[in-house]
């Protein structure tokens, strides 16, 4: 049985989100999400956000609920993009978002704007993110932040070596981590 996903704070507080019926789909734990948004604090207010490997849209919708102005949701899976659109309608955010069904790397090459906050939550078994990380600084605003969820088999410090990105913080929740990257 899938764990329920809900929005924890803001104008859509306690709204329940659907999750896509995809093998190996894993939603960010509520405790990790709460910790992350506590760290981000006021950076979310009026932010332009990007949710990559968006899945259910959990992170971007939480950001919109907490005061972000806009969020682009990118996922290549049609089940995910359909669920994200349904969740946006359910939470009342369809006018403040765009759902893009596209490969994340192809999206990054021609991103329509720069972002203040970028959420990245790929399947943990995928650890080949060198090209992804190397393109992040091109879409990040000056004081922007990247939030990368991953397992213990990914070393983001190694992936940022040839970029201007720096690891600002890292937190562990069970077998999951999130790493904050800044310019």
Describe the protein.
There is one protein chain. The mean pLDDT is 95. The chain has 183 residues and is an alpha/beta fold. The radius of gyration is 15 Å and the shape is globular. The longest helix is centred in the middle third of the chain and has 14 residues, at 78-91. The chain has 6 helices and 9 strands, in the order E-E-H-E-H-E-H-E-H-E-H-E-H-E-E. It has a single domain (33-182), classed as Rossmann fold, CATH 3.40.50.150. The strands form 2 sheets. A 7-stranded mixed sheet has the order 5-4-3-6-7-9-8, with helices on one face. Helix content is 27%, strand content 28%. Strand 8 (166-173) and strand 9 form a beta hairpin. It has helices spanning 30-40, 58-65, 78-91, 104-109, 130-136, 156-159, and strands at residues 5-6, 16-17, 48-52, 70-75, 97-101, 115-120, 140-150, 166-173, 176-182.
